Amino acid sequence: MGRQLLRFEEEINHEIVRYKLSDFCFSKRLGRTSVYIAELWGVFEGLLLTRSKNINKLVMQVYSIAVVKSISINSTGNATGWRLIVEIKKLLQLDWQVSIVHVYREGML
Question: Name one GO molecular function term (predicted).
Answer without folding.
Answer: RNA-DNA hybrid ribonuclease activity
